[in-house]
Specification:
Elements (H helix, E strand, L loop, with lengths): L2 E7 L5 E7 L6 E7 L7 H15 L2 E2 L2 E6 L4 H6 L22 E4 L3 E4 L7 H13 L3 E7 L3 E5 L3 H11 L2 E2 L11 H8 L4 E6 L5 H19 L2 E2 L1
Parallel strand pairs: 3-5, 3-8, 8-11, 9-10
Antiparallel strand pairs: 1-2, 2-5, 4-12, 6-7, 9-11
Helix pairs in contact: 1-6, 4-6
The structure holds zinc ion.
Length: 225
Amino acid sequence: MFKLVKTISDAFGNDINLYAQTCTTAKENILLVARFHGDEPEGEFCLRELMKEAQDQELVSPYNIYITPCLNPSGKELFTRANGHKIDLNRNYPTQNFTDVSFNPHTKELSSGTPASEIETKFMIETVIQYNFVRILSIHSDLHLIDYDGPARDLALRFSAMCHYKLVDNIGYATNGSFGTWVGIEKQIPLITVETWHAENENDMAKIWSELKPAIWDFCKLTSA
Ligand SMILES: [Zn+2]
């Protein structure tokens, strides 16, 4: 069962929430996060389904599982990739390779702001430092692949085999200042990034969840009690 453990307000008065299912015997923490980009609802749908399932039945894991289903509520409201400040939250991390404008295949160019200028980024940095996660899963759309950063190759191979999404070593374009660069490459925390295919409607999202569910349960080492 997931409970709200932390809420902060973004610059527009929206809540950003962190939920957790903890267990007194679990020593390690893991994180699942989605909706870095407001126009990518697929990952949030999956994480909310997972939390619903944990509500309806007792799911057990050797990990304390932390979930932020929507990191970008202002972008969600506008249905834009960027947040309400028109900044790409997945390029706003204070990495060595930070650049203030970045390229992406969706909107082409977007501002990256200044390193960790956004509340959403500060929230994520603080959360990663506070909980010392041993593995992180981040869900985006819509390139239909699995990518990874840091010491996560074996984990990514396993995840890819379970959901039948193809595994790539590199997403194919520069992602300076990304969460993956900061957390995976620079902090060496294993990070799997899932890029789902594009959902046209709720039925598609349910289909995506059914494809990803075994791999996500395995990632969380979840079992029905
Ligand atoms: Zn994205």
